[in-house]
Design goal:
EC number: 5.3.3.2
InterPro entries: Aldolase_TIM, FMN-dep_DH, IPdP_isomerase
Largest sheet: 8 strands, parallel, barrel
CATH class: Alpha Beta
Shape: globular
Catalytic activity: isopentenyl diphosphate = dimethylallyl diphosphate
Helix content: 40-55%
Number of domains: 1
Order of helices and strands: HEEEEHEHHEHEHHEHEHHHEHEHHHE
Distance between the termini: 55 Å
Radius of gyration: 19 Å
Pfam families: FMN_dh
Number of strands: 12
Subcellular location: Cytoplasm
Strand content: 5-15%
Length: 343
Amino acid sequence: MSDKSPDIARRKSDHIDIVLGQDVGFAKLTTEFERIRFIHNALPELSLDEIDLSAKLFGRAIKAPVLISSMTGGPHHAEGINRHLAEAAEELGLAFAIGSQRIALEEQGSAGMTRELRKLAPSVPLIGNLGAAQIRSEEGVDLARRAIDMIEADGLFIHLNPLQEAIQPGGDRDWRGVLKGIERLCRAGLPIAVKEVGFGLSAQVVNRLVGAGVCTIDVAGAGGTNWARVEGYRGKADEALAAAFTEWGIPTAKAIHDARLMAPKATLIASGGIRDGVEAAKAIRLGADIVGQAAATLGAAVNSTDEVIGHFTRLIETLKVTCFVTGSSGLAALRQAKLEAQT
C-alpha cells in the first residue's frame, strides 16, 4: 500500500461526511437552468405510457438517459455505497460510474471496487474512474487497463479537478502532460470518457479533448457541489483560499450548450447540480445525451438500495412527464421542444 493511501482514504471519507452534513453549494452562481423554461403543451396527442426514454452508453442499452455519477469515498464508506448504487442501476436499467479507484488500485482491489460490482450490475454500463494526475506518465495506459479490468468496466472516466487539487493540502499540483496522457489512452483503444468534478468544461477544453480522441465527455458544470468549499470545510486547507472560489466555474446549462456546439458528434453527459427530471429534460434539450446525478443521491446511497431506486424512479417519472407536457414522444423529440427565456 502506498504511504499516501491512509491519508487519501481519510480525505475521501471526510468528503462524504461534509457533502452530507454541510452546505457545499455555490453561494450565488447557479446551473442557469432557471433561466429557461419549456413552453407547456396542453394538447400533446401522446400516450404517456408509450414515451420512449431508452438510450445507449458505451454500447450498452439503458432504459433512461441517466447516469448514477461518480461518488467519492474511502474504504469506510465505499463498499456499501457502491453496492446500493450498483443494485439500483441494475434494477432500473441505468448507467453507473464509480468513484476514484486510486486507493483500490494501490491496495489491490479494496474499498468495494472489485468484479463483485459487475456481478451486481451485469447488464448496465459500468464506468471506472481515475484522476488525471494518475495517467500523466507512460505507465498511465497500464494503470487505466487495470482500473477497467478491476471491475470489468465498459468505460473509464478520467476526472479533471485542478482547482480541488490546488486547494487541498498534498494535492496533485503538477498537471503537465495530462492531455498527452489522455491522448495515449485513446490511441491505445481504451474506452475513455473525461469529466470535470463540478466547475465545468469550457468549449476550448472540450475542443482539446476531442482533438485528443475523446468521444465521451461529461461537462460536470457549476451550480451543484463546490469542491473548493468541501476542501475548506475539512479544516486542513487554507479557508480563505477556498472561499475565493465559491463562485468559480462554468454554469452547467452554459457548459452543455457550448460543448455541444464544439463537439457535435461526441456523447455528451450533463451533470452538475441537476436536481430533478425537469432539469434533466432541460439538459437534454440543450444538447446532452445522458444526464448524471451524484450528490443529490448520496443520502439515499448511504442508506439503502431501495432509497436509491425510489430517488431515480421519481427523477425518471418526472422526465417522462416533462416529455409528455412538451409533446415529446421520446428523447429525439425532446431535443426539439420549444424553450423560452425565463424572466
